[in-house]
Fold this sequence. Notes:
Layout: E1 2-7, E2 12-17, H1 21-27, E3 31-39, H2 48-70, H3 75-87, E4 108-114, E5 119-126, H4 132-142, E6 147-149, H5 150-159, H6 173-186, E7 201-206, E8 212-218, E9 239-241, E10 246-252, H7 254-259, H8 262-273, H9 277-292, E11 296-302, E12 307-311, E13 315-322, E14 328-332
Parallel strand pairs: 5-6
Antiparallel strand pairs: 1-2, 2-12, 3-7, 3-13, 4-5, 4-8, 7-8, 9-10, 10-11, 11-12, 13-14
Helix pairs in contact: 2-3, 3-4, 8-9
This protein binds aspartic acid.
Residues 37, 196-198, 200, 218, 220-221, 230-232, 251-254 line the site of aspartic acid.
Amino acid sequence: MRRALAVGGSGLLIWMGLMTPSAMSQDARHAIAIHGGAGTITRKNLTPERERTYRDALTRALRTGDSVLAQGGTAVDAVVATLMTMEDSPLFNAGKGAVFTSAGTNELDASIMNGADLQAGAVAAVELVKNPIKLARAVLEHSPHVLLVGAGAAEFAREQGIEFEDADYFYTERRWKALQKAKEKEKESAPGGGTVGGGTVGAVALDRYGNLAAGTSTGGRTNNRWGRVGDSPIIGAGTYADNRTCGVSATGHGEYFIRAAVTHDVSALMAYKGMTVQQAVDEAIQTTLTELGGTGGVVAMDHAGNVAFSFNTEGMYRGYLKQDGEPVVGIYRD
Ligand code: ASP
């Protein structure tokens, strides 16, 4: 028996799937959970038409991950396939829809981690790479390193036959206008902070072999400068996965997520304090991150397929799909 339970007010959506441990080890029931960024997302600033577009894109991403898992794909396969659909959409701040830096370029960050063996791959500040999450996976699988940046990462991408696009591909009017607005605003304040991009994407998957994986992809913050890199490509801050605890992907003001090592914190709270995945994400977001002054949220899934969300912003694009179930998609806090 399973039930989904939405709790209003605290931004929680708890999924409880009951499953015996022996069934898990034989043939785990697969699941995929995602976020599409946290921020000031309210019913007031999202038209019904735009809301539908987001819901469709989230549903499409979930169905993609689910079908990879249903065909026997691994959690890593599912995370990459799911995030690629979101990177290919202009709606999200990742891949095609990435925000612009102060120089008018797009600098892309992504990371992926395999909970089975704690292998990880990540890239930061890469340009013109169509699917940064694919490149992160290549770092995991075909390099002895965890994190590659900038021109070196691009060289590695070419060696790996990763697809590039020209700059036009990454142009979206909405993101360009956001940059102009940020530049106007910057005249009144000190430069350098960047403004919230909104729409970072993340996924966590559990495959039928009982393995977890998590991944995150972003264009960072609008008007980024000085080669600023946020939490998304930092293992333990933006992404973490460990079969013994959970997989986690974060979105929000990256500096705070790095300082609080949020995704590792979630895993550690489960490992050392015996918290459930929902208790752990709430402690990391509603207490630690919030007290530090950071904003954002996470999606997490434990090794039994229980999904937990927590965020302290007005909304977070999110959803999950459990084996043989229907996609469940959410946007607002209440
Ligand atoms: N965490 C990302 C960063 O700080 C941005 C976001 O998730 O909105 O680069």
